[in-house]
Amino acid sequence: xxxxxxxxxxxxxxxxxxxxxxxxxxxxxxxxxxxxxxxxxxxxxxxxxxxxxxxxxxxxxxxxxxxxxxxxxxxxxxxxxxxxxxxxxxxxxxxxxxxxxxxxxxxxxxxxxxxxxxxxxxxxxxxxxxxxxxxxxxxxxxxxxxxxxxxxxxxxxxxxxxxxxxxxxxxxxxxxxxxxxxxxxxxxxxxxxxxxxxxxxxxxxxxxxxxxxxxxxxxxxxxxxxxxxxxxxxxxxxxxxxxxxxxxxxxxxxxxxxxxxxxxxxxxxxxxxxxxxxxxxxxxxxxxxxxxxxx
Length: 295
Fold this sequence. Notes:
By secondary structure, this protein is α+β, with helices and mostly antiparallel strands. The chain has 2 domains: about 1-100, no CATH class; about 110-295, YojJ-like (1 (3-Layer(aba) Sandwich), CATH 3.40.1700. Helices cover about 55% and strands about 10% of the residues. It has helices at about 1-10, 15-35, 40-60, 65-85, 85-95, 110-135, 150-155, 165-170, 210-225, 250-265, 275-295, and strands at about 140-145, 155-160, 180-185, 190-195, 225-230, 240, 245. Strand 3 (about 180-185) and strand 4 (about 190-195) form a beta hairpin. Helix 3 (about 40-60) runs antiparallel to helix 4, helix 6 crosses helix 8 (about 165-170) and helix 6 crosses helix 11. It starts with a helix and ends with a helix.
């Protein structure tokens, strides 16, 4: 009965602010667990829980020396966590920085000219990926979003060119000097080519059958919010890396739909009812040009 009265006294003194405070803390803990579950930090969390349990046991049985040592470890452990898990913390802060604040309409470029540039870029990417898939030509195309890729741009050759099938064919021609790197697209323009991308953080978990292009694509998508399109030079498979995940077996049409949904503002989707027809017509023209040159 005393326990019930104690519990009731706690709940009876709760105010709306207290409920809000607990709800926010619960949400933060949930997000934190969700983030670390797929990283090396998950093992660290288990170790911290073990140390806390050991500290409580030592306190209960009065093991003063062990209690002192564990308290020192726990008190200084925060600095060790910052040093050991700097990459994970950096990625988490980058995700926080990509919040929906920047998606507010007056902060985004939704002008018809900007949208038209992106539509053309998407159509050209899809058309050339289909051609590369048919001829098993390897390609790596990075579509920059909110996170600026200045470090990666410095490793390549600045171009600032309008995207076209012919341009991509020249970049990724097997004997061309830039074909081993990635092409980076910013604001619907090919900004640079021959760029080197970061390695994935969880390389040991990646399928061993995936080559260097796919690994670079996953690494880039882990370190930024970029969309990375890959064409395999072994199988011709079209893949997309986004948010650290690689999805495969795209066609020109499904790739166009995927990129459009991510890049073009939602309110402009209703104005694209004729876009698939236009895309197919452009694709046929590009295919005819491509195979004529091959002959």
